[in-house]
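User: Structure please.
Assistant: Input sequence and predicted structure:
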Amino acid sequence: MEITVRELKKVDVVTVTGRVDSSSAPRMDQTLKGLTDNRRFRLVLDLSGVDYMSSAGLRAMVTCLRNVQKWNGNLHLANPSKRVAEVLDLAGLDVVFEVFEDQVEAVGSF
């Protein structure tokens, strides 16, 4: 799994590629927690390059969402791959997260 973070004026874009499973999800969790620890509460998570998402990855996303919402922030999802979209739907999280077709839309929604 690879993670890149791009800091914009008001929003941070976190791009994740590869597999998010029980061994890699803690790294994603640490990255998201690091942003919130630095008082960055408007986040876009680009999941277009994720080919597998385990429950550990979903847990990291939900934890981050709860943390940013405490500070009136939000975590928006951009362009989840077909497999990730299916997992979000099965877990009932497609109604919890705001999902956008691309990064530009997600960033512009803040």
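The chain has one domain: 2-108.
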